[in-house]
Amino acid sequence: MLSSLALAVVTWLGACSKKEAGSADSARMADSAAATSAAPMAPADTAKPAAAAPNDAQIAHIAVTANSIDSAAGVMAKKNGSAKSVKDFAQTMINDHSSVNKQAVALATKLKVTPEDNDVSKSLKSSADASTSKLQGKTGADFDKGYIDNEVTYHQTVLDALDKTLIPNAQNADLKALLEKVRPTVAAHLARAKDIQTSLNK
Known about the structure:
Elements: H1 3-20, H2 23-37, H3 56-80, H4 84-111, H5 119-135, H6 140-169, H7 173-200
């Protein structure tokens, strides 16, 4: 459901890397993009303007958008999934991502910061809407596989985003702390999704 979403974030991460680092870091980000999207950055990307590093208000909005998307995907999988492992995983996504969003909104309210919509959050929403439409056409085992395959890709991309862009660029200590607190949960989700993916492929 979220493979195109993952590609959008990977592309954005590569652009941010070019602004924040030299050619060595750009090569490193290209390697990361290849690992998560199975396609290296095109040479033409070097001619595009570098994207500015996100500010705290934009980071907050990206985090809220990403969590809302995966929570909504969980609701869909809970309803349409067939395997118990998929339904259980979907419920975990609903619970965990909804919880993180509550914490993010509470923090933004406390800091009197309004999450700022930006190109990345808009791209996330647009890609998720398109992917949801495709997943709705699947049923049974096909739905289970499609959902879990995308959850693996999505969580790997979010983990990379946390490590390479969101946490390093967060200026507010409380926001950075929340992102660092969420990271182990995202890593655990990725590991669990991979386990389910393996079992479904047997």
